[in-house]
Specification:
alpha/beta
């Protein structure tokens, strides 16, 4: 599939999705959100894709925010629909994908950009990364899950400060906060992220899918994460991957998981 605002490439089990609007600092508009949904959906269905990496084109920005010109004149009803549709189409969708998604954050990740990175399963940042949720400086709040995911990742107090000051933090502060897992040089960001992806790909895709579902359950209202874990744990015993993994361990050899 061809896209106007993103680039995709699949190689060696990794699908890399690159937001490609450098003249707009890769800002998210309606069309880009739809294209991202389609690209993530296709990659998740592609059996050759074991890990998805999302990044931004150029050196300045992962995603510098949402395209404000698209909604500056919205009313209350339109604003609510904008947030609901965006969360369903992209942010919640990415969080609940069964394929691991890693955000390779290069440069600015602001507003919707940081919200997209937080929806991914984890984040790796280049040393020049800057992150923040500046929405209150525009008279609005984060609407793509930012007020929910940021406290889950960095704690309530730090999230309150970041949102209320509308300020940015650098990569090292993000690492200290637990917002990102690793910080690398700009040149090493993608190679380092691919190394992490290669480690993931050694393991059972079936088990990883179950792990994602179980971990996410802990953060969903009205869901007992322990019960989800028990259910997913039990289902693993009925898979070919479990049979291969345990057999390989007992035979002291490397497992060759069929992904079933």
């Amino acid at each position: 599939m061809s896209y106007d605002n993103i680039l995709t490439n699949t190689e060696g089990g990794i699908t890399t999705i690159t937001i490609n609007r450098p003249n707009k600092l890769n800002a998210l508009n309606k069309d880009t959100i739809q294209e991202l949904h389609d690209a993530f959906s296709d990659a998740n269905k592609d059996k050759s894709t074991k890990v998805i990496i999302i990044t931004g084109s150029g050196e300045k920005a992962f995603v510098a925010g949402a395209d404000i010109s698209e909604f500056a004149d919205f009313d209350v009803k339109q604003g609510g629909k904008l947030a609901a549709k965006g969360q369903e189409l992209l942010f919640d969708f990415v969080e609940n994908l069964s394929t691991p998604v890693i955000a390779a954050v290069n440069g600015f990740a602001l507003g919707g950009g940081l919200e997209l990175a937080m929806a991914c399963h984890f984040r790796i940042a280049s040393s020049n990364a800057k992150m923040g949720l500046p929405e209150v400086s525009l008279g609005v709040i984060p609407g793509y899950g930012g007020t929910q995911r940021l406290p889950q990742l960095v704690g309530k107090g730090r999230a309150m400060e970041m949102v209320m000051t509308a300020g940015m933090i650098d990569a090292n502060q993000a690492l200290n906060y637990g917002l990102v897992n690793h910080v690398t040089s700009e040149d090493e960001l993608i190679p380092f992220t691919e190394k992490i992806a290669s480690r993931i790909m050694r393991n059972s895709t079936v088990a990883i899918k179950a792990a994602i579902k179980s971990i996410n359950a802990n953060f969903k209202d009205g869901v007992d994460g322990y019960k989800t874990e028990i259910k997913q744990f039990g289902k693993c015993f009925g898979t070919e991957d479990f049979n291969e993994g345990t057999t390989a361990f007992l035979e002291k050899r490397k497992a060759e998981f069929p992904g079933k």
